[in-house]
Automatic annotation (TrEMBL):
GO terms for biological process: L-amino acid transport. Keywords: Amino-acid transport, ATP-binding, Nucleotide-binding, Transport. It comes from the Bacteria. The gene is urtE. Residues 5-234 form the ABC transporter domain. This is Urea ABC transporter ATP-binding subunit UrtE. NCBIfam families: urea_trans_UrtE. One of its GO terms (molecular function) is branched-chain amino acid transmembrane transporter activity. SMART domains: AAA.
Length: 234
């Protein structure tokens, strides 16, 4: 199986402290990859280094044959990264429809063609098109943020803790959407997640970070209870 993303010896610092200490990751093409680990081990920082919000001091990030560390954040997005940060970051004063338009315009796409697909994944988005983004619940905003990222037709959808602080029925809907995307087989998904059952249900492969480096990685079916206890249980 080929990899859509290959990270080698990635190092990055924040305010003088070494946060990423030589990360090595392989995300197989057209599958769901879960990046896990306890609080503060560097999961979000790894995603930021991929999309260009955190500068790498060392190492390479090869995305579909392109070396990302040499590109600006804007140009990285154009290579086909769809990033949904922690906390969603939708525009609260714009309507749901306007929020979606921004996702599409970002890659110069026509909105119509892709919208129906988003509505199938998240019916609530269609229902709430005229509402202001800020009026949606946290879970609905998460769905909107994922929908908006999908409108850019990414090769790699990057989700940072999509279940965090979200009610169980919406977690299920997001899980179903990830399954549908996986079955469509058009893109790869890099999921940062602390919710182990969600990862186990959806993930094909995983990596667990510990103090800025990968402590364990492999097929999700080979994630053992011992590893979970050692690196994930709090
Ligand atoms: N802006 C910042 N200034 C100083 N330290 C930071 C900053 N952002 C992150 N850190 C530190 O970097 C380390 C890694 O943070 P990161 O957010 O990548 O971890 P994480 O695994 O995503 O954790 P979480 O699940 O809590 O988001 C932590 O120890 C954190 O305290």
């Amino acid at each position: 199986m080929s990899n859509v993303l290959e990270i080698r010896n990635l190092e990055a610092s924040i305010g003088g402290s070494r946060i990423l200490r030589g990360i090595n990751l392989d995300v197989p093409t057209k599958s769901v990859f879960c990046l896990m680990g306890r609080n503060g081990v560097g999961k979000t920082s790894t995603l930021k280094a991929i999309v260009g919000l955190l500068a790498a001091n060392n190492g390479t990030i090869n995305f579909d044959g392109i070396e990302l560390t040499k590109l600006t954040t804007d140009n990285r997005a154009l290579t086909g990264l769809g990033y949904v940060p922690q906390g969603r970051e939708i525009f609260p004063h714009l309507t749901v429809e306007e929020n979606l338009h921004i996702g599409a315009i970002a890659r110069g796409r026509k909105l119509k063609s892709e919208l129906e697909r988003i509505f199938t994944l998240f019916p609530i988005i269609k229902e709430f098109l005229p509402r202001k983004g800020g009026q949606l619940s946290g879970g609905q905003q998460q769905q909107l943020a994922i929908g908006r990222a999908l409108l850019t037709e990414p090769k790699l959808l990057i989700l940072d803790e999509p279940t965090e602080g979200i009610q169980p029925n919406i977690i299920d809907q997001i899980g179903d959407a990830i399954k549908m995307l996986r079955e469509e087989g058009k893109m790869s998904i890099l999921l940062v997640e602390q919710y182990l059952d969600f990862c186990k249900e959806l993930g094909d492969t995983y990596a667990i970070l510990e103090r800025g480096a990968v402590a364990s990685a492999g097929p999700m079916t080979e994630l053992t209870d011992d590893v979970v206890k050692k690196f994930l249980t709090v």
